[in-house]
Model the fold of this input.
Amino acid sequence: MKIKKNKKIIYFLSLCLIIPFTIFAADIKGIEDPTGGILGDNISETIKNMIGGLLKLAIPFLVLAYVYVAFLFVKAQGAAEKLKEAKKAFVWLLVGTAIIVGADVIFSVIKDTLSQANIK
Done:
């Protein structure tokens, strides 16, 4: 019990030391954008850049997930229960793929809707 309490104290103190440095670092002028240009001129450009970056990261994971689902189908070897689980995993993988790949389209629709309603 005492170890958990000590860990909580250490975490709290480390946050108390780290947060002020990050705040002061935000005030430094004349430094290039360390995010590689992900920050745009406005929030919609920033979100669009973030979605693009996340897509670049998500594609390899999607490929691995498809390989895993294919492995589930091979591993099932015709067993009805295992085939049912593999089909369920495949359906959810398709749903996830549609959401990830369609994120840019979803963002564009939301952005256009808000701009038509004059919400900035």
Q: What stands out?
A: Residues 35 and 69 are 34 Å apart (CA to CA).
